[in-house]
Specification:
The chain has 484 residues and is α+β, with helices and mostly antiparallel strands. It is 35% helix and 25% strand. It is elongated. The model has no long low-confidence stretch (mean pLDDT 94).
Length: 484
């Protein structure tokens, strides 16, 4: 059936071309947007001025001596009235245009007897022939896999999908504007790295032919920005893509956009105050309110966010005191809960496994989760009060992490020891453990000022939209479709 429809459209293309129409012109005159015409319709119609619009045909009706088109551009839809006595080659156009075709129209505005704002076509030029029927004509887009594989069709038939990405642009630009107003400098750092670092994740590996070296796609924006702090900059940020060769689910993608910023002479307590204000402004701007819907619940971002102690919450919900719990204790507890821990996991990874399955799902309303064990954050500064903990906070809500910040470790000797611990974990089989980065350690030995750093990914936006994260990116990577 689809093949028949395509062949029919190809015949219509040939008929239009045979009538002398250039179906794919390089230049098109478009002097008016539909939205502007509708907004100023009365004044434009009264002046009797000719308008020129261009867009996709989204509706067709009529026959005989008159037919009607709905022509849509990004700003709106306008009815075009095509009369036989007003247009040359009327029959050719009437019989060979289809829904989905792009046309350029010039004419005068008027209002029909039914009150429809319209333009009477004086010229009508096809400017791109659609050789495939749009989904609404033949199969729809009910299948979520099809919606994501052919996202351009999803946008054509669902205005709500298009609106998500307008909001996403606003989301990142609001973060950017606030940071720049707070005197942060936007920077760009390399996507290709010789030593991936800044996060616990497995990287993608590639090869650079020009230098004959193996490289990695970055898994974080952190290490390069800290080197910039060493160089004398004090307030910096980057919004960029990062890449992690790990699982894909409702919250995780293999490549995604992340914001990270670093603030010299600040610590995590100052950073928490700044971050809460930052988030609230972004959420209000994007959502228009502080109370948003998520998974059938009301999430109130407008209240003051409480601080929850990691150790206290872990003991309450997981039943283990992290000041004394050994690696074996954690392993047995994970086994008891059916979490299937792998034998090579270190103490920090076991803590994180239990936390993510037992503690984190209970954290629904916005809060700061503070002061976790040093085992799970090798780049954060140790707490001066509790040496087994680090000065870190997570923004938690909706049962997940929606941002993380900490006082940055800047002691090169301590950082080396913690990198060595990570390398030992790698050697025992933990592919996500961090690597020893000699170049970064050398930079620290020149001296990095006390600083705080923070990162947030587009997962926050997906939560605000109450959507899986892959529905909030233009073209998510999909498993290859099996041949039928």
């Amino acid at each position: 059936m689809l093949d028949d429809l395509i062949r029919e459209r190809q015949k219509k293309r040939d008929a239009l071309a045979g009538a002398g129409y250039d179906l794919y012109p390089a230049r098109v005159s478009r002097k008016h947007l539909v939205g502007d015409i509708l907004k100023n319709f009365s004044a434009l119609a009264k002046a009797g001025k000719k308008v020129e619009v261009g867009g996709r045909i989204s509706g067709m009706r009529g026959h005989g001596g008159v037919f009607f088109l709905d022509v849509r551009d990004e700003s709106g839809s306008l009815q075009v009235v095509v009369k036989k006595d007003s247009l040359k080659k009327y029959e050719i156009l009437r019989d060979n245009l289809d829904i989905g075709d792009f046309v350029s129209v010039s004419g005068v505005l008027f209002t029909t007897q039914k009150g429809e704002k319209s333009v009477e076509a004086k010229t009508l030029q096809p400017i791109a022939k659609s050789l495939r029927p749009l989904p609404s004509e033949w199969y729809g887009l009910a299948d979520p896999e099809t919606r994501l594989r052919k996202r351009y069709l999803d946008f054509l038939v669902d205005p709500a999908s298009r609106e998500i990405f307008r909001k996403k642009s606003l989301f990142w630009n609001t973060f950017r504007t606030q940071l720049m107003e707070a005197d942060f400098l936007e920077v760009e750092t390399p996507v290709l790295e010789s030593t991936p670092g800044g996060a616990d994740a497995e990287p993608f590996r590639t090869h650079l032919n020009a230098l004959d070296i193996d490289l990695y796609l970055r898994i974080s924006l952190e290490i390069a920005q800290k080197k910039i702090l060493v160089g004398g900059y004090e307030k910096i940020f980057e919004i960029g893509r990062i890449f992690r060769n790990e699982g894909i689910d409702a919250e995780h993608l293999q490549d995604y956009t992340q914001l990270e910023f670093y603030w010299a002479y600040a610590d995590y307590t100052e950073l928490m105050k700044f971050t809460e204000k930052l988030y609230k402004n972004v959420i209000k701007r994007v959502s228009g309110k502080f109370v948003v819907d998520w998974n059938g619940q009301k999430i109130n971002w407008g209240k003051a966010w409480p601080k929850l102690e990691y150790y206290d919450l872990f003991k309450k919900l997981a039943g283990l005191d992290l000041t004394t719990a050994t690696k074996d204790d954690l392993f047995h507890e994970a086994e008891r809960r059916g979490l299937k821990p792998e034998p090579h996991l270190g103490r920090g990874r076991l803590i994180d496994l239990i936390y993510k399955k037992v503690v984190r799902p209970t954290l629904i309303q916005p809060a700061f989760l503070v002061n976790p064990p040093v085992d799970i954050e090798p780049l954060a500064k140790r707490s001066s009060k509790y040496p087994d903990r680090v000065e870190r906070f997570q923004v938690v809500a909706c049962g997940t992490e929606l941002g993380k910040g900490f006082s940055e470790g800047n002691d090169p000797a301590d950082q080396r020891l913690r990198f060595i611990e990570q390398m030992q974990l790698r050697e025992s089989g933990d592919k996500e453990a961090q690597r020893l980065d000699e170049d970064f350690l050398e930079a620290l030995e020149y001296g990095m000022p006390p600083a705080a750093g923070f990162g947030v990914s587009e997962r926050l936006f997906a939560i605000l939209m109450d959507k899986p994260v892959r529905e909030t990116v233009f073209f998510p990577l999909m498993r290859p479709k099996k041949e039928s």
